[in-house]
Design goal:
Elements (H helix, E strand, L loop, with lengths): L1 E11 L6 H13 L4 E3 L4 E6 H15 L5 E11 L5 H16 L1
Antiparallel strand pairs: 1-3, 1-4, 2-3
Helix pairs in contact: 1-2
Amino acid sequence: MSTIVAFSVSPLGTGDSVAPAVARAVKVVRESGLPNETSAMFTTVEGEWDEVMEVVRRAVEAAGEGADRVSMTLKADVRKGVTDGLHSKVEAVERELDGLR
């Protein structure tokens, strides 16, 4: 099953800035080799269910280094027969926007 997951992860009780923890999580995602993008609020990763969820698990562990608690928000799109949904979904919206101009 093709899966796109958008998630954010943040350790709790480690100070004002979570940038070091988020960087550790993003590093795990990028090193996975799966298609991914990072924005100001979420990291999105695409692949088969098991491989995506394993990357998310490892990213949460990396972000939680030195923390007793981690908060995570996750949204998933699980769909049969889709490849490169990370880009094709955005392209579909862009085509619709072109029609509205």
